[in-house]
Design goal:
single chain; mainly alpha; two-stranded parallel ribbon
């Protein structure tokens, strides 16, 4: 039905003839002719029946235009055809066709008036269109004339000009694009030239240009590549920044800072710089130590590269320790120097920027200046904080190296060199950031104390060896010799301190004259010969002569050690107390050795007149009774302290003791033994007087050198430890000269045969009745002993100069012993008369007169001791009782004998008992 309706609609637009030609193949069915139409109209029809026939038509016939009716009907044919059925079916189809045709014809006829009217309107429209075609033709002709006369001639020129301008812009863009495409090459060249600011500036400009031409596809890719290039430049810039840490170059650093400023990453650069310095310190020390370790290992083994720095330091050999430390400190110094120069650069740059910015005052620049000031403040604080951090890293690295090796067995000079290097490094640290280098001080203090204990122990053992092999021969030096000539001095300067013993270069001018009075110093009218002078000079018994110091090789060794210990203190003040303590032990041990060798009265003496035991007993009695040979209480205290704290008295090693005891023993040294080459028992040598003089006076000289050093030692000694130094000087150094008394007393006690004199005095008769004019023989015998002593003293002085204090002590000891022996002899008298007492005075005066010719000591020691004892014989009972109480210097035996001898002459028995009781009261406290 839709097809029919559409067909009928089209019928109104075209003529019947035209409509027939316009039908599609589906619609191309037979159209009834006019006659047929007329017949159809004339035939009576039943509309309802007609509609039923149309409704009976299958829907498929109205489906679509491509439907093939013939094919459809043929396919519907049954397999077995029946003519009757076929005819019936054909009639049915004809009825349906006729109904449709009738319906179509009715519709056509119904629309015929509208068709005619529409056809007239179409005809009118066609006429209007023909007129419009004429108008269009005329318009096109006029437009063609305008085109040829105006557009092509004028507007064409304008169009070409516009096109030209567009092409010029395009060419410029293409050239810019070409330049951008070639930017990579130029950037690479600038990076090779280390022109980082220029490279960054170019890259930023390229990025700006690329953003302008981002509508081009090639430029969008280039923009991404430029960003990657900029990141690559930052990486190379970071590498360039790291190079500053080891070798600062002002031009290089200026470029780097300018580059970071262009990037707007000044603060980031400073953070990175500190990281690089930290890394540079680690890499530097590792590479230096690794180089020495691999060099000493002597193979290509790479296992050391995998070690930690701390473990690597333990593989440094002792031979390479100092060179490696020196290179290590130099390398670290270069890093610190680079950091210091970096700070200088920023300070100068900030000053220059501040001057430049002060002249600019517009608003935009004010904002930029505020940002610059913020960056500048940040950089300044970062750099100032980095000073201590960099130095702390340096200290820790050097500390690890120092503690990685046990330096206790290093040679002294090597260890001093290590200390010197570290001391210089600490000075650098103080100048670098004002640090006191506590880390380095503590580490070097540990190593120093450890080393110095071992070093000092070895030196004490060497000193013991020196002392036990010392023959106490004089070591000739110049008169101007002092510790300063062995303190930091070279070998050549040290050798200049020595002299030939017979050289008179150090003899004062007044002593080069023929003779000088020992009392006045004036030259007498009559002078002795030059031979006499030469003899006096050679003997060194000229008591006023100024001569070179008396010292031995061992003394020089101790002085050298003191010089080295002083050097240790100057280089490393934190262990000053330990060094001074050990230095004091050197003096203690030397003093103890001299006393042990020469100050003890335990040497047997041979005598032709008395058995050895008898002479020793008398010597011991004299020692105890007179007190002449006894050391002072201060000296005894000092010797006891030295023995307890320093001397190892145990002969065999006791392994059963506690660990503490074992440690204490390690700090001690065995007592030295006198060399068997030193003979102290010969009377011809005055019982080793030369050796005793050299030993004792060298100790005194050593004490003088220590006195000279007191101010220097006090300056470096910590305040809390200064009492130790004061005690050392007041109780030890100052007691050195006190050793003269016990040492030379032994010589004096054995040089004169006092026992023989007692025997001779015992044979004298003292109860004579008349005054005698001739002295007794024992006086001559005693004077002969002194003359022999004087000759031997001169003989000894030919080997060793005997200083005036020594000769005075020797003579004083001998005279005191002689006088006390005289008193002892007088105390042995059983009977004595007044004439006998006069004889005693005669003998003593004869002795004094002759003695004064042998010695210059005035007054004669203990002269009053003898004279007072002789005169006491004449005292009355009351005076004698008072005298006994006042004179406690005499022994009980001497006082008792005095009372007994006086009995019967002018003292009775009752008075005798009273006086003896007084003596007993005096003696009782002694018990």
């Amino acid at each position: 039905m839709q097809k029919i309706k559409s067909l009928m609609t089209r019928q109104g637009l075209k003529s019947p003839q035209e409509n027939v030609h316009d039908l599609s193949p589906v619609e191309n069915f037979r159209i009834p002719s006019k006659e047929e139409l007329r017949e159809l109209r004339e035939q009576p029809t039943d509309p309802q029946a007609q509609q039923e026939i149309i409704n009976s038509i299958e829907e498929v016939y109205f489906s679509n235009d491509s439907f093939d009716i013939v094919k459809y009907e043929l396919e519907k044919l049954p397999a077995v055809l029946s003519l009757q059925e076929m005819e019936e079916y054909r009639d049915k189809l004809k009825q349906q066709q006729a109904a449709v045709s009738k319906k179509v014809a009715d519709l056509i006829l119904e629309k015929q008036p509208a068709y005619v009217k529409e056809l007239e309107r179409v005809t009118s429209l066609q006429t209007g269109l023909q007129l419009a075609a004429v108008i269009c033709t005329n318009g096109r002709r006029h437009l063609n004339i305008a085109k040829e006369g105006f557009t092509q001639a004028s507007l064409g020129l304008l169009a070409n000009q516009r096109k030209r301008q567009l092409l010029i812009g395009l060419l410029k863009s293409l050239r810019t694009i070409k330049t951008l495409q070639r930017t990579d090459v130029r950037l690479s060249e600038m990076l090779e030239e280390e022109d980082y600011p220029g490279a960054i500036q170019l890259c930023l400009e390229c990025q700006k240009a690329a953003s302008t031409f981002k509508h081009y596809s090639c430029i969008s890719e280039l923009n991404s590549k430029l960003q990657d290039t900029l990141e690559q430049i930052e990486e190379q810039l970071d590498v360039a920044l790291s190079k500053i840490c080891k070798n600062f170059d002002i031009n290089h650093y200026t470029k780097v800072q300018q580059a970071y400023r262009l990037l707007g990453k000044t603060q980031t650069a400073m953070d990175q710089l500190h990281m690089h310095f930290t890394q540079a310190i680690h890499n530097t020390v590792f590479q230096v130590v690794l180089g020495y370790v691999e060099l000493c290992a002597g193979n290509s083994d790479t296992k050391f590269q995998k070690l930690q720095y701390k473990d690597l330091c333990t593989h440094i050999t002792s031979d390479s320790y100092i060179p490696c430390l020196a290179d290590l400190c130099k390398a670290l110094w270069e890093v610190m120097l680079s950091y210091y120069r970096t700070m200088e650069w920023h300070e100068k740059h900030d000053r220059d920027e501040g001057t430049a910015s002060s002249s600019v005052s517009d608003g935009n620049n004010v904002i930029g200046a505020e940002e610059t000031n913020f960056d500048r403040s940040y950089v300044q604080k970062k750099l100032e904080h980095g000073l201590s951090r960099i130095w702390q890293d340096v200290q820790l690295k050097v500390k690890t190296y120092l503690l990685g090796t046990d330096m206790s067995n290093f040679k002294y000079d090597d260890f001093i060199f290590v200390l010197d290097i570290i001391s210089r490094l600490m000075q650098v640290g103080e100048e670098f950031c004002g640090s006191k280098s506590e880390v380095l001080q503590e580490s070097i203090r540990k190593q120093s104390v450890n080393y110095f204990k071992n070093y000092h122990r070895t030196r004490l053992e060497e000193l013991r060896m020196f002392l036990e092999n010392e023959t106490w021969e004089l070591c000739p030096v110049k008169s101007s010799f002092s510790i300063l000539q062995l303190h930091y001095e070279s070998d050549e300067q040290e050798k200049s301190a020595y002299q030939e013993y017979d050289s008179d270069s150090d003899v004062p001018e007044e002593l080069k004259r023929d003779y000088v009075d020992e009392q006045t110093g004036d030259a007498p009218v009559k002078s002795v010969s030059r031979e006499t002078l030469r003899s006096r000079k050679r003997s060194d018994y000229n008591l006023n002569k100024v001569n070179a110091p008396i010292l031995t090789n061992t003394t020089l060794n101790v002085i050298r050690l003191v010089g080295k210990y002083m050097q240790m203190m100057n280089i490393l003040k934190p262990i000053a107390f330990d060094v001074i303590h050990f230095m004091s032990q050197l003096f203690d041990y030397y003093l103890y050795a001299v006393y042990t060798f020469f100050g003890r009265n335990d040497t047997p003496v041979q005598s032709s007149s008395l058995p050895t035991s008898s002479r020793e007993q008398y010597s011991a009695r004299q020692f105890e009774s007179t007190g002449l040979g006894l050391s002072s209480s201060r000296l005894r205290t000092t010797l006891n302290r030295i023995q307890e704290s320093l001397i190892d008295l145990e002969v065999s090693a006791d392994t059963t003791g506690t660990l503490t005891a074992a440690e204490e023993r390690k700090e001690k040294v065995p007592s030295p033994h006198l060399s068997h080459l030193v003979v102290l028992t010969s009377g011809n040598t005055l019982y080793g007087l030369a050796e005793r003089v050299v030993a004792t006076e060298s100790l005194v000289f050593l004490a003088e050198q220590f006195e000279f050093l007191q101010s220097h030692l006090d300056a470096v000694m910590p305040a809390a430890k200064k009492p130790f130094l004061q005690q050392f000087y007041s109780q030890t150094v100052s007691t050195a000269s006190e050793l003269r008394k016990p040492i030379y007393w032994i010589v004096a006690a054995k040089a004169i045969d006092y026992e023989q004199m007692l025997l001779l005095m015992a044979n004298v008769k003292w109860d004579v009745k008349e005054i005698m004019s001739q002295h007794n023989i024992y006086v001559d015998a005693l004077l002969k002993e002194f003359e022999q002593f004087n000759r031997r003293l001169n003989e000894v002085s030919k080997r060793v100069r005997i200083p005036l204090p020594v000769s005075n002590i020797l003579w004083e000891h001998c005279i005191r012993l002689a006088n006390r022996t005289i008193v002892e002899g007088y105390a042995n008298v059983k009977k004595c008369s007044n004439e006998g007492r006069a004889l005693m005075q005669l003998d003593f005066q004869q002795f004094l007169m002759k003695l004064e010719k042998l010695t210059d000591i005035r007054p004669i020691p203990d002269k009053e001791f003898v004279e007072t004892y002789i005169k006491a014989y004449y005292l009355t009972e009351n005076d004698m009782e008072r005298w006994i109480k006042e004179h406690r210097e005499y022994s009980t035996k001497q006082l008792t004998n005095l009372v007994n001898v006086c009995l019967g002459s002018h003292i009775n028995k009752k008075a005798r008992q009273k006086l003896l009781a007084a003596i007993d009261d005096i003696d009782r406290p002694k018990r």
